[in-house]
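Entry under discussion copied across for reference:
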Amino acid sequence: MISVHGIDYIKGMCELQVDEVPGGVIYLISDGNVFTWRKASMDFNLDIFQVGEKLNAESVNVKALREKKRFVENVPRSLYGIRLKVIADPILDDDGEVVGVFSMVFPVLHPMMSAFKDFAPVLSDMFSDGVVLFVTDLNKFVEVQHSENFELPELRAGDEFKIDTTPDKVIKTNKAVSIEYPSSVYGVPVSAACHPIVDEVTGKIVGTFGLLIPKVVASKLKEVSQSLEDGITEIASTIEELAASASNIHVNEQKLNNSIDGITSLSEEINSVTKFIKDIANQTKMLGLNASIEAARAGEIGKGFGVVADEIRKLSEESKSTVPKIKELTDKIIQKVSESSEMSQSSLSSSQEQAAATQEITASIEEITSMAENLNEIADRL
């Protein structure tokens, strides 16, 4: 109980330390009927218990006045939108009569909410891309902490949160919620996480704690890795086409080489035929010579046979003279075919090397593509 003579001292003390009380406080003095004096913290100045307002007949102030003793009462959220703890002490005059009540009203906050202003500024500096931290009650943002390099002006303490946002979903489900917002919502991609704040006594949810983290670096990293992956995919497609072309070249060169081998064989057969023609020409010449001798012996009777013998010898000479030309042409064919064969072999070897190099390049590109996919996965986790 408090002496009436100490009221001025109490008022002075309240004036000095009202804004030092964690979570805030409202100090009140009533004369038994109405509130006659009020002092509230800047952080806790609800529009309740105003000077001149009548006391509720069932209030803790009236109980303290009536029973002449201190009363402590917890006020449910349903009355004022916030849970309160009220302490009421009767004020006595020199005769011991109750002439008024001094009371203190404290918001009943979860430790997370009451400590938010202490830890939030420190925590916000730990995020390189910035962060927005917040706590809510069941309807609105109670506190919001923006970092220097990331602010969301649309989130302000005292504003009600919207339907289907993370705090709304947490309150409806009583479970932690995470959402990835595209850049169309906040201007940059944002990762949002929110957790329920549960009353230690009742076990009921009383609010939420959440944070919004911009994913600027992750977004850029994903864009770069996506561009890299797209570019590599296009290059890989081109390389595959080149590899297929090189394979076709290899097959065609192999066929050409086989054809050249066939031509060489034919040229060798032509040489054999030429030798055979030369042998026939020699034999025909001998036959013509013998026929001429026999025609000379026969005299007049053998003159016609002699003419035929002369023609046979001429034909033999012409056939024999044609053989070197055929051989010369055949040798030239063989030479050219040999040169073509060497070039074909060189081309075949080059095409084989090209195909092998293309396979190696394709394998390297597959490795780079895999790394690009890993970059995408890392960006998604950031």
In short: The chain has three domains: 1-107, 110-214, 217-379. The first helix runs from residue 7 to 17.
